[in-house]
Amino acid sequence: xxxxxxxxxxxxxxMAGHLQRARHDLVVYNRTRSxxxxxxxxxxxxxxxxxxxxxxxxxxxxxxxxxxxDVREVATGRHGAFITMKRDAVFVDHTTASAGLAQELAEEAxxxxxHFVDAPVSGGEQGARSxxxxxxxxxxxxxxxxxxxxxxxxxxxxxxxxxxxxxxLTKMVNQIxxxxxxxxxxxGLSFARAAGLDPLAVVDVISKGAAQSWQxxxxxxxxxxxxxxxxxxxxxMRKDLAICLDEARRNGAxxxxxxxxxxxxxxxxxxxGKRWDTSSLFARQEAxxxxx
Amino acid sequence: xxxxxxxxxxxxxxMAGHLQRARHDLVVYNRTRSxxxxxxxxxxxxxxxxxxxxxxxxxxxxxxxxxxxDVREVATGRHGAFITMKRDAVFVDHTTASAGLAQELAEEAxxxxxHFVDAPVSGGEQGARSxxxxxxxxxxxxxxxxxxxxxxxxxxxxxxxxxxxxxxLTKMVNQIxxxxxxxxxxxGLSFARAAGLDPLAVVDVISKGAAQSWQxxxxxxxxxxxxxxxxxxxxxMRKDLAICLDEARRNGAxxxxxxxxxxxxxxxxxxxGKRWDTSSLFARQEAxxxxx
Lengths: 292, 292
Fold this sequence. Notes:
The structure is a homodimer of 292-residue chains. Helices cover 54% and strands 14% of the residues of chain A.
């Protein structure tokens, strides 16, 4: 299978590595050429100077870039993949982006006799490295069927959630559930400290019951030690929350706590925490508590 | 061991049953006498007409009642257990109450040469029935050591968290973590519906990753089906949150999301949901969303 991968960032770099190990005929592209060269030096294979050149003759083109406009650039831009992709080829977008973008690019692909699948992932850098990502997809069943065996190289779980945009909407639900949950955990641990309890003992006791969460189990130690370098960065979480809040304006859902937590993340950014992980809501709680 | 149990409500009734099966020499008391008679008819044993009479000659007196003042009534009231308890006996309070009450009663017990252990539980009615409660204790090591083998009759996990009040403070952390978490889950599921997704499929996909929680796994189906009869009632949660928010005023912790969720529960009460379970925050989200 001829495959192209566009965007060798923190996620894309190891994802493309898994495709290479799966013995696809792979061409990679990255905006900053030096990173593509480093990738080829490590993995072998071939780097192209533009998305269009990477995508020529590909059956499946996969992208993992930053924001909506970055996706537009590599897909429908002047040197975008859509120019050279052959009929019936599938463009898979792993970027967490808006559902509107997915619908827009799905329509454009259809006009050109091609396919588009929105396919944001969860599992973070660790999941990308270990090839254990969860992939939430939106698109036609035919396009999904063609793309799925390629994505399998780095998926623990891959699922078609509905038409174009459904993958993005599912990822939004994931981020909404995490945002309020991490803030609740931060309030709980900050309260435990204020009350003079041993927070580690508290977590040990309450983490077997109705307060249990992945975040509680996997983040409480790093939160309490003030190390916020163990996961998804605040500035990217804010990008995702902006997408959620924007979509909610359209679909009529209200997100009072998600919206408040977005504001707290803005405060974390002001504390210098753009690159801290999402559990740094705890640092904000503690800063407010210990201010004199 | 001579044991008294005060308060045969939803929790206390099955808890006292476990004590009887553990072959303690047990006397029970309940404010509404008919319930104590029903308990004796089911379990055998003996019911007393007042806390003082139940507690006479007991080594350990355990209580599970409603609010701070109910605990005061059965402990230090005119017919309270403290009047007749013998020297070195231990009063164990399973009620979720304030840490201040625990400190007040611990001091009063000490003045009388007795002991007090605050010991709120989690695990709900189901945990009480199955004898699988988590018990969070505050008090002296000596008092805890005497009470622990008795509580073992209905404990999956029992732990001394610190001095008087530490059990209550630990329970507060538990409730704080749950409040925001359930609201986040409610926002996520409501958003999923608004977005036209299949919420069951969404939960299936996202519940293996960083958004996972006990609440997501155990409550999403009942929430989506609109059945809020599967757990802890809203009016009791509001009692607990009032205790948390009151304690936070004293210890300097800030609880912005917990405080907001308390207000949402007030709205659930106005919707007729005093007796609905805590996951009914989802009903409020849906009511707001579908209002025209």
